[in-house]
Amino acid sequence: MKDWLQTFSWQWQWQQPLFWPWLALLLLGWVMVASASTGIADYYTGNAAYFSIRHAVYAMLGMGAVAVMSQVPLAFWSRLEPLLLLLGLVALVLVFVPGIGHEVNGSRRWLNLGVIKIQASEIAKLAAVFYLAGYLVRRQVEVQQTWKGFMKPFIILGLMVALLLMEPDFGAVVVLMGAALIMLFLGGVKAGQFFLLVIGVSVISVVVVMMEPYRVERLTAYMDPWAPEHVYGSGYQLTQSLIAFGRGDWLGVGLGESVQKLFYLPEAHTDFVFAIWAEETGLVGATLALLLLATFIALVWQVAWQAQRRGQLYGAYIVAGIASLLALQMVINLGVNTGLLPTKGLTLPFFSYGGSSLLICCAMVGIVLRVAHETDMAAGGKDG
Predict the structure, then answer these.
(1) Do the Cβ atoms of 184 and 157 come closer than 8 Å?
(2) Predicted confidence (pLDDT) per residue in 214-261, tens digit
């Protein structure tokens, strides 16, 4: 028992280069949420620190998630792949069950577990990464040489995509399929097959967008958000976000002094928390936050690269999938905040308010730390 307690510690985790940027992201995210949420928290609860306190609790739970997940050997996950995949699919189905599924703004994306609401897509995306990593290791030759081996995973992924579109959650579909394509590319699929798949996915995405009037409206509003027909309608969030960036100038209006968070910019503490941060800290603060995110993602990719070089392919594919999920979500959220992409409801990992999102992101960090640790041990580096 004593040996187990000694192993279950921060004895080696904090020595990994990834640990400190992750901790910095966690703390900076809490500062962002604490500042951006004061107006809405005071209005709905009478306590301006309501969301700040809850986010702090989630952050501490996230630290616990890192501690736990970093102790779990990869061999354990490889045995649980079918169960994880089933869990992801069941979670996507349960959102449609009355009493379990929770609807917000017309979308049924959350599982109501009483004390916390979990976004089903977060579970499904991580389950898909484990499934694809195992598949690429077990069927490496088949994937690289035959169409059958290349297309098999898309039966499962297609089912996930269909369920996500029913919620609807087009943003999660983009992130999931983007990560899957990156993992397949790294798995060594033929260039012709890969680019044909990219074209096919792109065509299907365009069709899916054009099928829903509200998606078309968002797209047209993105092209000209300041047009009279958009500025107070589908382009409202984008214009208010851009106003926040403009008010920030070089050094910002001061931490806690945002005007846009006072009900001008909807979802100021979730999807658009970065816009509020840019308003309060200016270009300098926004750039520092971006550099921290970029450093974090670069270190995650470095873990994948080191694992691949040392023959730990399963761990390398898992980390590559996690890096892809996080990076794509960051790019999409930041693109939406700055007007480079059409408006889409995706949180910014580690920065946006949201319990389930933060916990899953921290769990991913724990998994990456475990891969880094096992890679070091395989190379005869640090003691385990």
Answers:
(1) no
(2) 888 888 888 888 888 888 888 899 999 999 999 999 999 999 999 999
